[in-house]
Amino acid sequence: MKTKKRHSLFLSIVIFASMLSGWVFAQEDTPTPITAEDSTRLQTLTLLVQHTNTVAKIGFTPHGTAFYSAGFDGQYCVWNLNTQRDPLGTLYFCVADYLVGANSVAWSLDEKHLAITGNNGTSIRIFRVHAALPSDEWNIPIFTIPSPNQSVILSLFFTPNFLVAHDTNDIFTFYDAQNGTLVRKFEGIEATISPDGKRLALLDFSGRVILIDGLSAEVIDILPVDNVSLVAFSSDNRWIATADQNGIQWWEYTRQQYELFKELDRQVQYIAFSPDDRFIVTWEAKSVFLWERNSGTLAGEMPDHSGGINSVQFTPDMSRAVTLDSAGNGRIWRINESGEVERLLLMRDRVDRIYLSPDSVSAIAARIEFFARFYDIQRGQLRGQYTMPPDSEMSPDWTLMATITNNVIALHGLPNDPRPLAFPPIAIAETAVNVRQTPSTEFARIAIIPENEPVFGTARTEDNQWIHVILEDGTQGWVFVSGNLRLNTPLENLPVMQIE
Fold it and tell me: What is the mean pLDDT of residues 224-232?
């Protein structure tokens, strides 16, 4: 019999967390990080469904406690990843009136607060990130900070005690992060913050470097150099590297100020410290160089990049580096204790992005819209491949991969992932399953769920014969309940959708 829905389903997706709360089980252990060997074992764990238009931006917070998404529907949404508090993928709240590419956003260092501009960039709203909120409280900040003189705020970042806003008048304003009180202002054109947020290097209009304490907002020191274009902090705040038209310098913090330690006559396009702070990293034209920090001597070189260098990344243990040139060639390099470099592998195909695992073992080289190739970077070997849509991201602990298709976000992981999910699959398709427009075989199929893929149900018919599903590309339809489905939980946990 031909049937049709009484109403559209997007209304009920938002309430899936409460409807499916009976599916959540206690976490027994921590999830296992994804390695290069796992490329063929990944599967979709859960879907994040809230946006009503294309999702344009996603990301994991640096410590992995939350996930954020921004869409062309004007929403900036925050989702839980801290499974000790709430199930994975619980929607905490969404901020309305968000314009992709226009609003500025910053997360506090402890990831408990979110700052986001409002009123066309002339104010800052502060939200507390700790639990799921009722939808009528989503857009209510704990306090709002107006921008002085109604100037537009260009960027935001947190130090341990302050929220810092940079506006169109090239003013950096320090606000008390607890109450929004204005504390101090500095003039400058650019700022670099240390990894722990306790130091701020501000470039003023003459290219001087003003060092500011992130705990007190007081000036620590002003480096005796001009026309500085690049600044980098070491991980322990003890060292600062700078680059100007005369070369590169690095400075050591002693006797309550930074003193010049070494300088080299090199014209560079990039400067940084290695993860262990033993080397100064620069790149010039087609080569990446490692300079021994204490002696200033050249330790190693990564040469012959086509058209210049786009990025260089080091494993945490400094045993490997991966570079990507402007032609899309990825290279894996071996680094010995003294900093000498040897090329291990030129990656297959041209790639757009490269990710390194925190255990220094795996890498993903992604050709956006085509594939993600997994490499064992210790052996310098290609190990597998996985589909990766545009703008995909890896979680900091490498236990999740997030992908976007239209307005739906999918979190991928290993099949034995122990975390409870806010929106788990109702079933697994044991063979390919047809998806139909209505709960009837009289209409042609509109999609197919492949064998061994998860089935995400949002509702059911009253007789339990059909499940309303949503696919990763946003397609919605109906699946007949048959022996082709291996149910993970009783159908009664789904709400009934009335049809006529």
Answer: 94
pTM of the predicted structure, to 2 decimals: 0.90
- The domain ranges of the chain are 1-24+426-500, 34-425
pLDDT in tens, 73-83: 999 999 999 87
Domain 1-24+426-500: assigned CATH number: 2.30.30.40
CA dihedral 83, 89, 92, 94 (to 10 degrees): 150
Record the tokens describing residue 5, joined without a space. 């829905």
CB 281 within 8 A of CB 308: no
β-strand partners of 446: none
The secondary structure of residue 148, as a DSSP letter, is G
Q: Which residues contact 494 (CB under 8 A, 6 or more apart)?
A: 19, 20, 426, 457, 458, 459, 460, 467
Q: For the domain with range 34-425, which CATH number is right: 2.130.10.10, 2.50.20.10, 2.40.160.60, 3.40.710.10?
A: 2.130.10.10
pLDDT (tens digit, 9 = 90+) per residue, 248-265?
Answer: 999 999 988 999 999 999
Which long-range contacts does 296-305 make (Cβ < 8 Å, 24+ apart)?
Answer: 296/262, 296/263, 296/264, 299/338, 299/339, 299/340, 300/335, 300/339, 300/340, 300/341, 301/341, 302/331, 302/333, 302/341, 302/343, 305/329, 305/331
Strands 270-273 and 279-284: antiparallel
| pLDDT, position 178 | 94
DSSP reduced 3-state for 374: strand
pLDDT band at residue 390, thresholds of 50, 70 and 90?
A: low
CA dist., res. 184 & res. 131, Å (int): 32
Do 173 and 188 contact (CB within 8 A), yes or no?
Answer: no
Task: Write the single-letter amino acid at 419.
Answer: R
Measured distance between the N- and C-terminal CA atoms of the chain, rounded to whole angstroms: 11
Question: Model confidence over 79-122: pLDDT tens digits?
Answer: 999 877 899 999 999 999 999 888 999 999 999 999 999 988 89
Torsion angle, alpha carbons of 479, 483, 486, 488, to 10: 70
What's the pLDDT score for residue 370? 74
Q: Is 435 helix (H, G, I), strand (E, B) or coil?
A: strand
Q: Inform me whether the pLDDT recorded for 13 exceeds 80.
A: no
Residues 276, 349: Cα–Cα separation, whole Å: 31
Rg of the chain over CA atoms, in angstroms?
26
